[in-house]
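Tokens in:
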């Protein structure tokens, strides 16, 4: 190993961390990868002492701490000159820097408008996504022209330029760059597949395959158009009564009055769900667990454990994450009566979706049962007096421990 211990702190599946990890493989750098699994790990005093903004990733070395992924990956690439991750000579080093910045400004910047809506992590915006895909195609066109006469982006071997651009493109190849979208860019596809099949890339990214059909974001809810101001009423001439016919009047079927909403038929609760949601959002979860158990009204609310019935199909993290995100989007009608924590545990290709939910009343709400995805889960009512249940609930609220024996991968909170 070329360098003594350094630790990279990053959340699971962070493409910016992948750049540093692949560069470390090429330079034979001993790099510990500390995966951050919950927000309290990088919002506490120990972490913010290393990075006051509390962001990821950071690299902790014997000389101090580096933040910003571009600075981290450049530092690792410069540790060894003989591997030529910065190319051969000053001009090639400039070209490498050019593509490192290109990856950040032209590709990473599109995550919010393309990748997050597709994965169900952000509401879709058709206009922003269309603009984002145009920018992506322009970037691919630039790369296509560059790679028409080159095997790699700079020089005759893999450099930091290839590492950064490949990692920035990986999520697009997994989600939106399907067969039709790839067709205009054969040189880019050839270069991308060449890179990801190098041992150093494969050790970090795992096996890569190309998609046939692009993933689509969940349909956006249509906003109601504002009501137009009513035009001034004009008095209509009264119609003369029509002569009565000889037939008996056919009685019209009376509309049945709607019954009271189920939430009004159950006893009032001392627990105000919105108060708990605010408390959870604004505090470290571990600090408020005693308050949670104090607030919980077991007469007015019930706890449930949900297990996805088809976990054997969950091979890819981004697809599994998309599954959960789509479910959450369709649960909007139940938001007023629910709080939940859904966890994706394990590692590819063995991922499991489970969750703990709090619902108003003692049964699953009708609004939940009306969502088609609900039947894809096995729902079990929990006894909050059981110590094992208390431990389970706290693990899901905090995203700590193991989940069915599997390590935490990522999670979503419904509130």
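Residues out:
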């Amino acid at each position: 190993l070329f360098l003594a211990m350094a630790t990279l702190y990053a959340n699971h599946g962070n493409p910016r961390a992948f750049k540093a990890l692949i560069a470390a493989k090429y330079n034979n750098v001993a790099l510990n990868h500390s995966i951050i699994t919950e927000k309290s790990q990088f919002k506490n005093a120990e972490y913010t002492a290393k990075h006051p903004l509390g962001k990821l990733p950071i690299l902790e070395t014997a000389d101090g701490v580096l933040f910003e992924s571009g600075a981290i990956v450049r530092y690792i690439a410069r540790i060894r000159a003989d591997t030529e991750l910065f190319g051969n000579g000053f001009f090639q080093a400039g070209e490498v820097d050019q593509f490192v910045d290109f990856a950040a400004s032209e590709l990473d910047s599109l995550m919010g408008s393309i990748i997050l809506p597709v994965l169900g992590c952000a509401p879709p915006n058709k206009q922003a996504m269309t603009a984002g895909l145009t920018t992506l195609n322009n970037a691919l066109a630039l790369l296509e022209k560059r790679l028409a006469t080159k095997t790699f982006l700079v020089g005759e071997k893999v450099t930091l330029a290839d590492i950064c651009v490949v990692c920035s493109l990986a999520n697009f190849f997994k989600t939106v760059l399907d067969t039709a979208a790839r067709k205009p860019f054969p040189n880019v596809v050839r270069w991308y597949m060449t890179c990801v099949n190098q041992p150093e890339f494969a050790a970090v990214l795992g096996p890569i395959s190309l998609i046939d059909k692009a993933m689509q974001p969940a349909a956006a809810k249509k906003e109601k158009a504002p009501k137009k101001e009513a035009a001034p009423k004009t008095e209509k001439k009264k119609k003369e009564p029509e002569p009565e016919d000889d037939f008996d009047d056919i009685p019209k079927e009376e509309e049945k009055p709607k019954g009271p909403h189920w939430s009004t038929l159950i006893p009032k609760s001392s627990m105000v769900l919105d108060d708990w949601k605010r408390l959870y959002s604004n505090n470290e979860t571990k600090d408020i667990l005693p308050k949670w158990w104090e607030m919980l009204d077991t007469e007015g609310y019930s706890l449930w454990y949900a297990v996805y019935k088809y976990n054997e199909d969950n091979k890819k993290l981004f697809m599994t994450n998309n599954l959960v995100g789509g479910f959450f989007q369709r649960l909007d009608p139940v938001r007023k009566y629910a709080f939940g924590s859904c966890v994706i545990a394990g590692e590819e290709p063995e991922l499991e979706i489970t969750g703990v939910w709090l619902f108003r009343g003692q049964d699953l709400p009708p609004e939940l049962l009306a969502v088609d995805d609900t039947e894809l889960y096995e729902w079990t009512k929990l006894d909050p007096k059981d110590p094992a249940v208390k431990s389970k609930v706290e693990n899901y609220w905090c995203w700590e421990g193991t989940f069915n024996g599997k390590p935490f991968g990522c999670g979503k909170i419904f509130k």
